[in-house]
Amino acid sequence: MLIGCVGGGSNFAGFAFPFVPDKLKGKDIRMIAVEPTACPTLTKGVYTYDFGDAVGLTPLVKMYTLGHTFVPPGIHAGGLRYHGDAPQLCLLVKNKIIEAVAYPQKPVFEAALLFAQTEGIIPAPETSHAIKCAIDEARKNNNNCIVFNLSGHGHFDMAAYDNYLSGKLEDYEYSEDMIKEAISKIPKF
Ligand SMILES: Cc1ncc(COP(=O)(O)O)c(C=O)c1O
User: Fold this and answer.
1) How many domains in the chain?
2) Which of 44, 86, 110, 150 could form an S-S bond across to 9 if both were Cys, CB 3.0 to 4.6 Å?
């Protein structure tokens, strides 16, 4: 089982794509892409052509998107707030080769603290999404081999940990209406 967080898809793709050929040949490998519920591109976006940037200057790319005008809430995992994702990753999710899940930030920080206390590494808020998923899968106790990508440390994110520990962190679930509104701005062609 391979688990990684997804902002635009680079760390996840670099980590998991080398195993895609084995999976396509029938090997029993699960690949799980983890994103925040505040920016649920793979889990709630639409699969269509959209601009890669907010102002509409890039070529249109086919991907899961929340609409290029989508502005996600200010969660601490700033690197996971992109409205789209890499087209190759999106295609693999679309074809069910790769699974996608979303978590709110409070349980993600709870997992981050557990990881920091047991492993002595303070993970980045982005990375902690993968850690939360890895812990959940490990707790299912299915004797799986679980590998996750520790994409970055959290040494610059102490304020986020401080907010979590002082109870100031909020969970965001992007509403269906706001997603519909942003998706309505995707170019029609
Ligand atoms: C530590 C860390 N992990 C993951 C990401 C997500 O980016 P990507 O999906 O492109 O790997 C970021 C983005 O800023 C990041 O800072």
Assistant:
1) 1
2) 86
> Which residue among 6, 11, 128 is best mutated to probe the pocket of ligand 1, counting the most ligand atoms within 8 A of its Cβ?
11
Tokens of 11: 């760390």
User: Which of 157, 148, 149, 155 has its CA nearest to residue 120?
Assistant: 155
Report the atom number in ligand 1 closest to the C-alpha of 127.
3
Residue 115: give the domain boundaries.
2-183
| CATH number, residue 137 | 3.40.50.1100
For the CA of 11, the nearest atom of ligand 1: 11
What pTM does this model have?
0.95
Contacts of 125 (CB under 8 A, 6+ apart): 75, 76, 77, 78, 105, 108, 109, 112, 154, 157, 160
pLDDT digits (tens, 9 = 90+) for 12-62: 999 999 999 999 999 999 999 999 999 999 999 999 999 999 999 999 999
Q: Which amino acid does the sequence have at 100?
A: A
- Decide if 189 is inside a domain: no
Long-range contacts of 173-178 (CB under 8 A, 24+ apart): 173/37, 173/38, 173/104, 174/37, 174/38, 174/39, 174/40, 174/44, 174/66, 174/72, 174/73, 176/44
Give me 64's structure tokens.
């899961």
